[in-house]
Structures are given as C-alpha cells and as structure tokens.
Write a structure and sequence with these properties.
Chain lengths: 172, 158, 361
C-alpha cells in the first residue's frame, strides 16, 4: 500500500469515527467537539486532494465559524453539563432508519454515476482561477449563484438586525 | 457633525496612547532611574527614604539620660496597645515625690508604625528609628524595654 | 551579490542525500521527522527567549530590574522555570471532563505548530510554501479559539467558562479586522502565497510603498492580533484581577506550560506574519533602484532580517502590554465594531483603487 492511500484511510477513519461519536455521545459539548474533528477530517481530505483553497475555506467556515457558533449556543443552554437522557427505543430505531435511508439514496446516486477513469484533466486550482470563475458570467461561470447566495446572506443579516433591534420605549 | 467628532475622537485616543507609550519608552531607555534595591547585596550602602519608619526607640544622651517623664501620653495615643509605661515614684532632691518612668515596655510585634505616639509625646522622648531587620526566632524577643537600665531623666525636662 | 548564509543549499543537500539513500516514502517520512524536531526545538527556544524578554521588558518599563539572579544577568531564569513546571504534578481536578480537559492544551499546541508551516524564516527556507499561505494562517489560527473554549468548558469552573466566553467573543470579532488588513496586502500583491508576497517587496516594503492606507492597515493589524492572542490590553480572557486565571485557572504543571507556550508561539507567529506582509519578511531593506544601497543591505543575512523585524514587532506588542490598561468588554466591542471594522472596510476600498490605478511604487 502506498503512503498516500494510508493517509487517505487515516483521514477517512477520523472523519467517520468522530462523526459516529458526535451522534453517539451523551454529552452535548463533547458532541460539538467530535463534530468539529469530523469537519477537520474533511478539511484534511481536501488537503490530501491538493485542493488547499477548499480546505482552508472548510476550516475557516466550519471549524472557525459554525463549530464556534454551536459551542457558544451549547454554553448558553440550560443544564448543558448534564448527560442527556437515553432516548426511547422507538426514536432510536426511527433515527437509524432515516440515516440508513439517506445513506442508501446517496449510495445509489454514487453507484449510478459514471466516474471517468482516470479522473478528469487537472483543474486549475489557483486562487485567481477560482475567483475568476466565481465572477464569470459565461457558461462555466458562477456569478448568478454567487450573487444569489450573497442576497440570502444579506437577508439573514437584515433579519438578525431586526430581531436584535429594541423598539424605543416612547414609540407606540 | 458626526464625522468630525468621530475622527477627532480617534485622533485624541491615538494621541493619548502615544503619550503613554512615550512614558514607558522613556523608562525603558533610561536604566539609571531603576528603583529596585538589591537588598541583601547592597546592605552596606543601603539608603532608606527619610520618612521610613522601622521601630520606636527612646533617645538617650551620652550620660545615659532620657527625656521621658512617664506621662503615658504615648500609651493613650497608641491605637493597639503597643506601649505600656510602668511608672514609679521617685523622691527628688527637695524631698518631693515625683512620678517617673520605671519601664517603658514596647511590643514591636504589635506595632504598626503609625507614628501617633511620637506625635503625642510632649517632651520628644521617643522617635522612629530606621532599623528594619527585626526577624527573631521567638516572639517574646520582640517585647522590648526602651529605657536603658539605670538611665535618668534629663535635667530640665518637665 | 551572493548571500553569505544560504540555508537553501543546506536544505537541498539534506533533501538530495535522503532521496538518494532511501526510497521516496521513507525519505519523506524522515524529512517530516526532521522538520518536526526542528519545529519543536524552535518552540522551546522561542518560549525561553520570549518569556525572558517579556519579563525583562516589563521590568525596565516599570523601572524595575527583572530577573537577574539565575545565571549571568538572569539569562537562565526561564530555563529554571521550565524545569519547575516540568517536574510539577499535572493535576486533573475532580468534576472536570477528563478527556477534553487533557486534550485542550494539546489542541492549542497543535494549532500553533501548524501555523509554523507557511512562514518563510529566510531566503528559500520555508517548510511548506502553499499557494494559499495567508488564508491558511487565518484558517488555522481560528482553531485556537476551540482550544480555549474547550479548556474553559471542561474545567467545570465558572471563572474558566467566563474567560473562555470572553475570549471566544473577542477572537471571533477581531478576526474580521485582522483579515481585512491582511487582505490589503493581498490585494496589492495579487497573491496569497507567502513567497510571492515577499518577492513583491524586493523594491521596497509594502508599508513604505503602499502610502497611508497600508500604514493604517498595519496599525489595525497590530491592534487586532494583540486582541486575538489575548494579550493585554485585551487580556480579558485571563484577566488575573477579575477571573483569577480565566480559561487556564484549573491548569497546572506541564498542561499550563503548554498553554503558556502556545500563547507566546502565537505572538511570534502573528508578528512573523505581520513582518512578512508589511515589512518584507526576510527581504532586506531595498529602496527602489538604488543598486549600490540594496547591495550593501544584501550582505546582512536574510534570516537576521526576518528575526529582527519579527522581534521588533514582538517588542511593540510588549510595549502595548506594559503601557495600556485593560479594556472593559463593551469598550472592546465598541473599538472593533465602531472603529476598526468600518475604517478597515473603507481602507480596503482605497487600497483596491490604488492597486487598480497602480499608484503604489
């Protein structure tokens, strides 16, 4: 086995095991930490694929942003330090069934998809190329989705401000 | 206007921060002003500030005379019972009985060096000394009698 | 003009020898081990030097003498302290989340170690010159906050938790300003790669070439990274006088030492990145086309330039620490959201205009 393959399996094991532990643990804070390590494992896979930009973005957005957000909400939860109660058997079975169903759907797609071998010609991974495609309006450009996503984020920000804004007491 | 106030606030803040940094920068570059006393090493040349108070002592002249009349003003002034003046009655040359100090007991272990006894003394018999190396192995050694044995009241002190 | 000390030859020599003697996989593994040992050695050295430097600088700024007993002029003081911390008992208090409590210092340390990878210590002397160098640094440094939150939570102590919360809020908000000021240089260079950024400064450092906007960006960067490394005047995460020790209240012995070391390593890293972005990294002081002057400057080895600039910035951060009083939490957030962030945003627009119109030198 080549060194590269060993590294791949290590990263995949880290991702999968910590994902399983994130849903299996009884303590909510530990669950957030396991989720974080699973996300970092995915970032490691991007690094393994030499797709450094995606890896860095994965760490910035998920590890630095989402995971910290989750941890903060855990901090603000009542009695977050206690062990969670064991869920009823029915719910466990239902959750497992839903997870298996989702996995089955994804696997079906994966098996049906004809992956070209060898992999497609080398993509230009430089940051400037990614930036150009992000703002290109041509066939392979992503200008429209990019703008739509920014519109969504803007709406979310305005929503936050509206919720956080306190009405002045002397106004009706 | 909002913007002018905004920028003048920033300018003011930066100015005051730079002022502080100039001060610490000055100290950093001027090592001569260092105030640390490397005490056990410089014991011989140690210079204590003038107002430093180490303990209460009673001044004695060369003839073993002190100025304490035993009036107990210091004992009354002391806030925590550090001083205990034991008095006796002496018969003077004219045959009159007169109050005098027998033992001036001073508990250094209780003293807070507040200087009130010195200010209360009408005859300037006691003063603050600058000695400060008072550590002993037994607490009882800190209880001292300040008037020397066989010392007398100085002539002319009432 | 040739450089007197060229580390590139040394590294090429080792690289070549390893690949001739061993199969590629083994050679790579050996190189990793060598790099790992070198990084750990650098950590230990930096920890010793920076702690001593901090204590001496603080002493002189407060008209004191500082450590001067252990070894000549007190130079061995931090070595003695390290020895003390090493032999101390590593306590794990009752009621803590044992696994996370013991994991947190290592996460802090691993994040600091990962940050070493893209830093160019000298000409052609860099562990990994990846094409997103600056972005990598901002990404990995956001892992630091996880270690602090983990330590604060698992300690099962309200002071630790408060310290961790404060530190989290602080790091998350100041990351924005730091990112924006880093972006100004990225916009001017047109690349995220550290080696490109350094090469772009071969005719002058960005702080001189980029006019006032880059100067403003530099000031914002220094303020933001001081906050991100939790140093005074932004040390509310530790705040000895309010929170006893903040997130590391419950830590002792070597686990505490790891946190302490990670803090100083982070100071070194942010200063190294600042020196690379604004002060030219290992690039000697070059002025435009003055070849004679530039030639003289080239005689000073590039590693000396790099460490000189980095330590100058570290000294600046220490100067801040021992001059300014601690900010309150509302003042801290005001500073970020009302001053640094708007100014940074306007500033990056200005820099973009400068970069497009090629007004920089």
């Amino acid at each position: 086995m080549k060194g590269e393959t060993i590294v791949f399996y290590l990263l995949a094991a880290l991702t999968l095991v910590s994902a399983a532990m994130a849903v299996g643990t009884r303590r909510i804070f530990r669950s957030a930490v396991y989720l974080l390590s699973s996300l970092i494992g995915i970032a490691g896979l991007y690094f393994w694929m030499r797709f450094e930009f995606a890896a860095a973005v994965q760490i910035v957005v998920y590890a630095g942003g989402i995971a910290v957000l989750i941890i903060f909400s855990v901090f603000l939860t009542q009695r977050a330090g206690d062990d969670m109660p064991t869920p009823p058997m029915l719910r466990t079975i239902a959750a497992a069934g839903a997870a298996l169903l989702g996995m089955g759907l994804v696997m079906l797609q994966l098996v049906a998809h004809p992956f070209p071998t060898p992999a497609v010609a080398e993509v230009d991974r430089s940051v400037s190329a990614i930036g150009r495609r992000m703002l290109a309006t041509g066939d392979d450009g992503f200008a429209l989705p990019f703008e739509v996503v920014s519109l969504l984020l803007l709406a979310a920000m305005i929503g936050c401000i509206v919720i956080a804004m306190r009405a002045k007491p002397n106004q009706p | 206007m909002f913007l002018t106030r905004y920028f003048s606030e920033i300018a003011e803040a930066v100015g005051s921060l730079l002022k502080g940094m100039r001060m610490t920068g000055y100290y950093f570059t001027h090592h001569k002003e260092i105030i640390t006393q490397q005490y056990p090493d410089n014991r011989a040349t140690l210079v204590l500030p003038e107002r430093f108070r180490g303990e209460v002592v009673m001044t004695h002249t060369d003839n073993n005379e002190h100025r304490c009349t035993g009036c107990t003003a210091c004992e009354l002034a002391c806030p925590n019972g550090t001083i205990k003046v034991v008095t006796k009655f002496e018969v003077n040359a004219e045959g009159k009985k007169k109050k005098a100090v027998d033992k001036f007991v001073y508990h250094l272990e209780l003293c807070t060096m507040c200087n009130l006894c010195i200010e209360a003394c009408p005859t300037d018999a006691i003063r603050m000394a600058q000695t400060f190396e008072h550590s002993v192995y037994d607490r009882s050694q800190l209880t001292r009698i300040l008037n020397k044995p066989d010392s007398k009241l100085q002539e002319g002190v009432e | 003009m040739q450089h007197m000390w060229n580390f590139a030859q040394l590294t090429d020599l080792i690289h070549g020898w390893l690949y001739e003697t061993f199969p590629p996989a083994w050679a790579l593994a050996f190189e990793m081990i060598i790099v790992g040992i070198a990084v750990i050695g650098l950590f230990a050295g930096l920890g010793l030097v920076l702690v001593l430097m901090e204590r001496k600088v603080s002493a002189f700024m407060q008209i004191r003498l500082g450590p001067n007993r252990v070894g000549p002029k007190g130079l061995m003081q931090s070595l003695a302290d390290t020895l003390k911390l090493l032999v101390k008992e590593g306590m794990t208090p009752d009621g803590v989340d044992r696994f996370l409590f013991n994991l947190a210092p290592f996460i802090a340390m691993i994040a600091a170690m990962l940050l070493m990878a893209p830093i160019a210590f000298a000409k052609d002397f860099q562990i990994w010159d990846l094409n997103i160098g600056v972005l990598y640094v901002t990404a990995i440094s956001s892992l630091n906050v996880i270690a602090i939150l983990m330590a604060g939570w698992s300690s099962n102590n309200k002071y630790s938790l408060l310290g961790a919360m404060r530190s989290g809020a602080q790091i998350v908000s100041y990351e924005l300003s730091a990112g924006l000021s880093i972006l100004t240089v990225v916009v001017l260079t047109g690349s995220l790669q550290i080696s490109d950024i350094v090469t772009a400064q071969s005719n002058g450092w960005w702080i001189f070439k980029g006019h006032i906007p880059v100067l403003i960006a530099f000031v914002i960067y220094m303020i933001a990274v001081t906050a991100e490394t939790n140093r005074a005047p932004f040390d509310m995460a530790e705040a000895e006088s309010e929170l006893t020790g903040g997130f590391h209240t419950e830590y002792s012995g070597m686990k505490f030492a790891l946190f302490f070391l990670a803090e100083y390593i982070n100071v070194f890293i942010v200063c190294a990145i600042g020196a690379t972005l604004f002060l030219g990294g290992w690039m000697p002081l070059h002025i435009g086309e003055w070849t004679a002057f530039n030639g003289i400057m080239d005689w000073i080895p590039s590693s000396v330039w790099f460490f000189g600039k980095t330590f100058f910035l570290i000294f600046l951060m220490m100067w801040f620490r021992w001059t300014f009083p601690r900010l309150r939490i509302d003042q801290l957030l005001n500073l970020e959201w009302r001053y640094l962030l708007p100014i940074g945003m306007v500033n990056i627009l200005l820099v973009t205009v400068i970069a497009i119109l090629k007004w920089h030198f």
